[in-house]
Amino acid sequence: MTAAPGSAARLQGLDAARGLAVIGMMAAHTWPRAGDGAELLVDGRPSVLFAVVAGLALGVVTGGERPVDSGGRRARSRLALRAVLLLLAGLLLWMLPSGIAIILDAYGVMFLLLLPLLLAPRWLLAATAAGFLVLAPLVRDQVVAVTGAGPTGPTRAPDGAAVLLDWLLTGYYPALLWLPLLLVGLLCARSGLHRARVRVLMLGLGAAACLAGYGAAAVLPGVEAAAHSGTTAELLGAGGLAIAVVGGALLLLDSPRVPRAVTALGTPVAALGRVALSVYVGHVLVIALLEPLGPAGFFEPAVGIPLLVVLTAAGIALGVACDRLRRRGPLEAALSGLVDLALPRGGSARLGA
Q1: Looking at the predicted structure, is the pLDDT value of residue 2 above 70?
Q2: Is residue 6, in this structure, part of any structural domain at all?
Q3: Rounded CA gap, 275 and 324, in Å?
Q4: Is residue 81, in this structure, part of any structural domain at all?
Q5: Which segments cross the bilayer (predicted)?
Q6: Farthest CA pair distance, the chain
Q7: DSSP string covering 4-23, please?
Q8: What is the pLDDT of residues 182-234, one digit of tens each?
Q9: Domain count of the chain?
């Protein structure tokens, strides 16, 4: 979905934001908790950052502020196939006894929903994002009130209709509710991520949206912004935080006037971000293998914190090794290989890059 390691067009800040998202999700699955149901800062927000970065990355590989459809139908088909493969990978991971709410299948569904708007003008992206931000949570609430549906995980849902409902509206990562996150990321990419003014606006407006969402939940009765609540306030708060993080990362890691010592601090996290799929799947497999310890064991300091350190260090080591060898991550390469096998690249296709 992004340029090859070492490409001049690659944005370190974008990779670092993706790396932070993966580390945050691993922390949510391992960090000690004060008690049952206690919410941590890393609950929900890293997965929102992951979704926002997805929209940004799709915008970058489709031409940035000057989108082009140079690959035509074949390039769109390649991107759709990637989405389907992610969906299938997510379903397989749901079958493991990890106790983790897998995001990859929902991620694939979000990609498919985004395809029709991939090359839309900025005004349409903004209007669609605003509409879904307000209306989708209302529709979800009505559906839940009528059906009593709630997050179950695709492999545990009783039938196909329930799986679809889980993906679109009632799951942990409901695609229709989260579509504004990808659209805002795409909108930022269309505005020109290489522009300092755009990065500053992302930082400032993202922080303002974060304050508005979480502030509304703090002072207004009946407004909720808890992780995975799927309310407008949560999406605004967590989405704004994600945009601010990306804007800040771009300012710190992709600005020529920033000292190299500062940019060097983000290099390991950016390296992890370039192998995000491999690291995410790897941490699910590790936790599933350790499941005999008991799910609660991962929330004990003696288990959870060392496990998070090991997983993060291993992810960074994998990313650095792949950078040195100028190769993609193992699963990133496998995904691209499968797409190439099914739909060989056209001469100038970009959407399937």
Answers
A1: no
A2: no
A3: 13
A4: yes
A5: 79-96, 171-189, 201-223, 235-253, 265-290, 302-322
A6: 57
A7: PTT-TT--HHHHHHHHHHHH
A8: 999 999 999 999 999 999 999 999 999 999 999 999 999 989 999 999 999 99
A9: 1
What is the domain range of residue 303? 12-342
Q: Does residue 22 lie in a domain region?
A: yes
Name the more confident of 159 and 124: 124
In single-letter form, the type of residue at position 291 comes to: E
Cβ 44 vs Cβ 234: under 8 Å: yes
User: CA-CA distance, 165 to 249, in Å (whole number)?
Assistant: 35
Mean pLDDT of 129-154: 86
Question: Contact, 50 vs 173, CB < 8 A?
Answer: no
Question: 29 near 298, Cβ under 8 Å?
Answer: yes
First to last CA, the chain: 6
Contact 83, 142 (CB under 8 A): no
Residue 236 to residue 141: CA distance in whole angstroms: 17
CB count within 10 Å of CB 196 equals 13
Name the strand (E) or helix (H) holding 351: none
Torsions phi, psi for 163 (to 5 deg)? -60, -45
* pLDDT of 39: 85
Does 247 fall in a domain? yes
pTM (two decimals)? 0.91
- Of 51, 14, 24, the C-alpha closest to 246 is 14
Most confident of 29-33, 61-65, 195-199, 258-262: 195-199
**pLDDT the model gives residue 175:** 96
Give pLDDT, residue 343.
Answer: 83
Q: Which two three-digit tokens encode residue 206? A: 């993202």
Distance CA 27, CA 319 (A): 18
Tokens for 179? 């579509």
If one counts every other C-beta atom within 10 angstroms of the C-beta of residue 349, the result is 21
* Chain position carrying tokens 């099914």: 342
Give the relative orientation of helices 232-253 and 45-61 as an angle to the nearest 10 degrees. Answer: 60
